[in-house]
Amino acid sequence: MEFLIIMAVLLGLGFFVGGHLERQHWASIRLRESQTHDLIVSNIGRLPPPNATEARMVIGSVVVSSDFFKTFIGGWNQVFGGRIGVFEGLLKRARREAILRMKADARRLSLIHI
Question: d(Cα 80, Cα 66) in Å, to the nearest integer?
């Protein structure tokens, strides 16, 4: 019985606290994206820059962890099969955060195109 109570508390904390922190992070991402929308970002390997005088490398890396609730639900999805959809939002958030960190690095170097 104690195990069930502990699991319920951990799942509740993961759901509410993890959800709150995730919403805060999404709000931060949207705000920073609106502040850096003027930087040109492309993933084309060869972009002909007619006025480029130099090239620099910028890096954006991020580690985003899963909360207990998402890990628990993902485990159940893995047991029953199918897509593990609870982690898709986590991956989108990590990808957008990494791009924002690249933009911040580019802004620090006074670059206009990534």
Answer: 20
* Residue whose entry in the numeric block shows the structure tokens 């960190």: 101
Specify which residues 40 forms β-bridges with: 113
pLDDT digits (tens, 9 = 90+) for 88-98: 888 999 999 99
Residue written as token pair 């890096």:
59
What CA–CA distance (Å, rounded) separates 18 from 15? 5
Q: How far apart are alpha carbons 73 and 85 in whole angstroms? A: 9
Rounded CA separation 92/95 (Å): 5
Which residue stretches of 36-80 are H helix?
Answer: 68-80
What is the Cα–Cα distance from 61 to 91, expressed in whole angstroms? 13
What is this structure's pTM? 0.80
Coil, helix or strand at residue 40: strand
